[in-house]
Amino acid sequence: MKLDVVDLENDITKITLSGRLDIKGALDIDSEFTAVAEAKKNVVVDLSDVTFLASLGIRTLIVGAKATANNGGKLVLMNPQPNVEAVLRSSNVDTVMPIINVTTPLAAVFGV
Amino acid sequence: MPLSPQTSGIGWHRVFSGSIAEIAVATSWIEKIAASLDPSGSVAFAMQICVEELMSNIVRHGRVHSFSKAYLPDADADNPLSISIDIDVLADRIVMTIEDNGRPFDVAKAPAKQVQGPLEHVRPGGLGIQLIKSFGSNIEYRRTESGNRVTVDFMR
After folding, report:
1. Which CATH number fits the domain that encloses residue A73?
2. Which residues of B touch A54 (CB under 8 A)?
3. Structural domain count of chain A
4. What does A22-68 look like in DSSP terms, one character per residue?
5. Which pick of A75, A96, B74, B118 has the fewest CB atoms within 10 Å?
6. pLDDT single digits (tens) B93-123
């Protein structure tokens, strides 16, 4: 599991995840992902290259979303593959973390 | 394991140790088997989800030690945690049977928790049972002499 962080304009941070966000993948990135979320306000997580998502991976995403909310911001999920999106929607994760696609204007998403 | 009269005669069996690393080995094994049975990939994904979540529960909760120690060598050397998986192909479905020698846990009766907002009230974790019940069908549990047996169907 790979994690890359890039600061975008308007104080938005993009975290790009690549690989399988299974129990091992979640353990690999959990500390760094949470640390970034705790330090930022508005975070977009690019899931384009995430091929698998399990409950421990969802846990990592929720912890991050709560951290950004504590900073007065939010965390959104971008461009999940169909199977990964099915996991997110079956757990109702999309009700607390919006799912957007690559064409969605980020400034509008975050109100900045 | 005896095969039912409906079986196509195709089946696989493999035994895994109870460790985090073995979960990835098992899902990779399942992925290869399922890909040969269902080129669309949807059954392969569903089977991997269920194996991941069932094995994750066994590895983290099958013994008395905590999750933080779960990937250390099993403290109970005389009876290490063991997980066997059988895959049987029937005409209309694939049946996956997972047996372990861990503590009793009836996954079929366990509540399927979903995220319920608002976000500040959401407690992270505990979504695995819901994923098993969402991606698998006809989940049945039986307590065995040595542990637990769970069967899950995947419609072809």
Report:
1. 3.30.750.24
2. 49, 52-53, 56, 128, 131
3. 1
4. SHHHHHHHHHHHHHHHHH-SEEEEEEEEEEEE-HHHHHHHHHHHHHH
5. B118
6. 999 999 999 999 999 999 999 999 899 999 8
Structure-token pair, residue A46? 């690019």
Q: What is the ipTM metric for this complex?
A: 0.93
pTM summary value: 0.90
* Contact (CB<8Å) A22/B52: yes
The span from the CA of B43 to the CA of B46, in Å, is 5
**Cβ atoms < 10 Å from Cβ of B124:** 17
Hey, which residues 16-35 in chain A have their CB within 8 Å of chain B? Answer: 20, 22-24, 27
- Assigned domain for A112 exists: no
> Do A79 and A104 touch, CB atoms closer than 8 A?
no
Q: Is residue B3 part of a domain?
A: no
- Rg (Cα) of chain A, in Å, rounded? 13
